[in-house]
Write a structure and sequence with these properties.
globular, Rossmann fold, 10 strands, four-stranded antiparallel β-sheet, about 40% helix, 10 helices, six-stranded mixed β-sheet, alpha/beta
Length: about 240
């Protein structure tokens, strides 16, 4: 479904990723864990077209996309819920959600009609968003904004979803709620690459795990293996 092969990427003359390779199989959740500054978010940005790799291949549904911009990659079935949520603050909750469907629906006639079924599905998943559908997104709580960011990505009906630090800045009770939602996505068969600061929580929902340090993948394996790995225990699960 998604394969990343030996990608190098960074910002300007500063290379952050030094030959990263990983894969996400259809219907699976893969967790990418590591310390702050390890290159996890840069990996997400390279996959979604926010930055272009200088070397390597990114293959989405058997198609190489490493030279494409973000809009083109989105149209091919990848949705990115970024670090820090990045909702459109001045717009309503519902307008934020509708923007998520923009790449796959008619731009003019019948947009809302075609989006209605998916919009209702998102409101069933996130009843709180339905309650606040006319509220300006910038006035939502952090947890509600995270729900909105995930919901907006799901509106695209993605084949692969990137979820970057969904628990960042949230109170513990809201972190639990976010991971409840991730479990629901897993049950629905969503293919997901997850970057998460709470490694233990990530391992509880993941089917496979990669550990990143200094822009490289240094360990990989099943969550059960990572839970017993002394290096992972000392650095991320202590």
């Amino acid at each position: 479904m998604l394969r990343v092969e030996n990608i190098h990427a960074g910002y300007g003359s500063s290379e952050v990723l030094h030959g990263v390779s990983l894969k996400v199989e259809a219907g699976k959740i893969v967790a990418l864990i590591g310390a702050n500054g390890a290159g996890k978010t840069t990996t997400m940005r390279a996959i979604s077209g926010m930055i272009k790799p200088t070397q390597g291949r990114i293959i989405l549904n058997n198609q190489e996309v490493q030279g494409y911009d973000g809009a083109a990659i989105a149209r091919l079935g990848l949705a990115h819920s970024p670090e820090g949520r990045k909702v459109f603050g001045p717009l309503s909750v519902e307008d934020n959600l509708l923007l998520g469907a923009y790449s796959r629906l008619p731009a003019l006639f019948g947009f809302r009609k075609h989006a209605a079924a998916e919009l209702n599905r998102i409101y069933e998943l996130f009843p709180r968003l339905h309650e606040r559908k006319n509220q300006v997104a910038g006035t939502l709580s952090g947890g509600e904004q995270q729900m909105l960011s995930i919901g907006r990505a799901l509106m695209a009906q993605p084949k692969v979803m990137l979820l970057d630090e969904p628990s960042m800045g949230l109170a513990p009770v809201l972190v639990q709620e976010v991971f409840k939602i991730i479990r629901q996505l897993k049950a629905a068969g969503i293919t997901l690459l997850l970057v998460e600061q709470f490694a233990r929580s990530a391992l509880e929902v993941a089917d496979y795990v990669y550990v990143m340090e200094h822009g490289k993948i240094v360990l990989e394996g099943l969550p059960s293996e990572m839970n017993k790995n002394e290096r992972v225990l000392a650095a991320y699960l202590g």
